[in-house]
Design goal:
mainly alpha; globular; 0% strand
């Protein structure tokens, strides 16, 4: 598999050591662990996976927003609070806290000249590049409509108290998927809230 990265197809990135694949893999494992996080060791594994993802790239901490929302919805649906899961979420922030002085120094020194300035145009560009490089505006519009409808369905279920345990896809997992799709907008809002 590594030899494929050395082809001319990946000429630009074949010499760079970017941890995005590792970060996404760790987050995927964390999501699977969260789904089955009933044992103490599962909560420890969840914290380690999330902390390791955040150590790869500090934006991985943003995954805690949809995970936290999904866990809150799960707590409402089941009537049980999984304190170990919440502790795992808190523990996942350790690597970011350790690296925070370095991140703040980086922002002070290089922030004014950072090449990837956040903007509303970058959100739409991300979705266009994420789904296919050939996507046109009407496909993006359909994706936005699907996202809005999904959020509407989730909110309707929450407000009408139709939180059924027998649903084919648990409500918290729908909320998690919707939250993950909304992460670029969350990152944009946070970047402006903290001075970018």
């Amino acid at each position: 598999a590594v030899s494929v990265l050395q082809t001319t197809l990946y000429g630009i990135y074949s010499i760079e050591a970017r941890p995005y694949g590792i970060e996404v893999g760790l987050l995927a494992l964390a999501l699977l662990t969260w789904q089955h996080c009933e044992r103490r060791l599962s909560a420890v594994l969840l914290a380690l996976l999330l902390a390791a993802a955040a150590a790869q790239h500090f934006y991985a901490v943003l995954a805690l927003f949809p995970l936290g929302a999904a866990e809150a919805i799960r707590s409402i649906r089941t009537g049980k609070i999984r304190y170990r899961v919440w502790a795992a979420f808190a523990g996942a922030c350790i690597s970011t806290i350790i690296f925070l002085p370095l991140l703040l120094a980086h922002k002070r020194e290089l922030g004014a000249h950072f090449w990837a300035r956040p903007g509303t145009h970058t959100i739409s560009q991300l979705y266009l590049q994420l789904f296919t490089p050939q996507v046109h505006w009407h496909v993006f519009l359909v994706l936005v409509i699907v996202g809005v409808v999904t959020v509407g369905i989730v909110l309707e279920d929450v407000f009408r108290k139709k939180l059924r345990a027998s649903a084919a896809v648990p409500l918290e997992e729908l909320a998690l998927a919707t939250g993950l799709l909304c992460l670029p907008a969350v990152a944009y809002v946070l970047s402006h809230a903290f001075g970018e």
